[in-house]
Each structure stands twice: as structure tokens, then as C-alpha cells.
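R.M. (postdoc): so does anyone remember the format we settled on? I'll just put the C-alpha cells first.
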């Protein structure tokens, strides 16, 4: 048993009379104290003899193996899907496109609120939520207010580790009784030629 002290923005871990330098400082992000991964894997692991379990909220993207063709490709695909079901996240990564942006404001509310700002705020919130809850990478097509071409808008969805693509739009209506969410899901069936 013992006591170790550190504080947000601090460069040292204090254990008794020892000052252990930290490569990265702990910080408050989204109202929670976040500590760097090396604090757990290096410093904390050296101090205690118990196993350490933690979740990395910003894991590195996993590179997919080269795509195989034919029957081997089918078996490889099935094995990867089977591996995913056993104790791993449902998806490897998520791409989010906050609709509109830049010179395209989208719908403008009676108080001047622009759809592009709502979409971007919701995308940022969703990004943090998915990272914290699922622990998978999230890619945004835009992270500030700027215009995108159609090609740029879909670039995040074509990354090799992305399994799901969410396009955000905030709809408008003159009827205040209307509210809710519209969800469109693309069928997994491919059109046959």
C-alpha cells in the first residue's frame, strides 16, 4: 500500500519522496480527468503488483490486411466477422459527416441558428460518446465550419477501417408539434446486374 500524487497539467508523479517525470501531463477533457496511456502502462505498472485494466478512448486505427480474392477471401471475411463477435467492438471505426458547412448554412431557424452549426455540434458530441463507450476511432469529414466537395465529404467513409458512416442533418418544420429523428439505413443487399 502507498500513496501517489499527480495533478492536471503536472509533469511529475510524486511517490513518497520520489518525483517521477511524466512524458505527458494528465488533463481535464470533457469534465473528466484523463491520464496518458504511458502513465498506466509504464509508471503505474512499476508501482503496483496487481493486474491493471483500462480502456484507451483514442486507440490507434488498425490497419486491415490485404484483401484476398475468391474463396479464400470469403473464408477470411467470415473468420474476421467471427473474431469480432467474441469480445470486441461491433465496429472497427466510425465515419461521421456533419452536413452542410462553410458557405452552405443548411436550414436557418427563426432565431438565426444555422443547421451547419447544429450538425457540427452533434457530430462532436457523438464522436466523444462513441470513443468513450466503444473505444473505436471516429473520423469527421469536417471539424470546423468550412465547405467540402462531395469527394472530400465521403473520404472518411472510404478509410479501410471504417465499418459505419453517419451523415448528420437537422431537419426543419413550421409545425412545432413535429419532432423526432429520421434514420435511413442502406440495405446490405447489392443490386444484381
Amino acid at each position: 500500500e502507498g500513496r501517489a500524487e499527480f495533478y492536471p497539467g503536472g509533469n511529475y508523479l510524486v511517490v513518497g519522496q520520489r518525483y517521477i517525470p511524466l512524458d505527458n501531463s494528465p488533463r481535464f477533457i470533457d469534465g473528466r480527468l484523463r491520464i496518458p496511456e504511458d502513465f498506466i502502462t509504464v509508471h503505474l505498472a512499476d508501482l503496483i503488483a496487481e493486474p491493471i485494466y483500462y480502456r484507451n478512448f483514442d486507440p490507434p486505427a488498425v490497419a486491415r490486411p490485404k484483401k484476398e480474392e475468391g474463396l479464400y477471401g470469403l473464408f477470411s471475411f467470415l473468420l474476421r466477422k467471427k473474431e469480432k463477435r467474441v469480445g470486441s467492438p461491433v465496429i472497427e471505426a466510425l465515419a461521421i459527416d456533419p452536413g452542410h458547412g462553410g458557405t452552405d448554412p443548411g436550414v436557418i431557424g427563426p432565431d438565426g441558428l444555422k443547421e451547419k452549426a447544429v450538425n457540427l455540434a452533434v457530430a462532436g458530441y457523438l464522436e466523444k460518446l462513441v470513443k468513450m463507450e466503444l473505444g473505436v476511432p471516429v473520423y469527421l469529414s469536417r471539424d470546423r465550419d468550412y465547405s467540402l466537395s462531395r469527394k472530400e465529404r465521403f473520404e472518411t467513409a472510404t478509410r479501410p477501417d471504417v465499418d459505419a458512416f453517419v451523415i448528420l442533418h437537422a431537419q426543419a418544420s413550421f409545425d412545432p408539434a413535429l419532432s423526432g429523428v429520421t434514420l435511413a439505413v442502406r440495405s446490405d443487399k447489392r443490386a444484381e446486374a
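R.M.: ...and that's the designed sequence above, right after the C-alpha cells. Also worth knowing: The radius of gyration is 22 Å. The helical segments are 37-47, 70-85, 115-134, 150-155.
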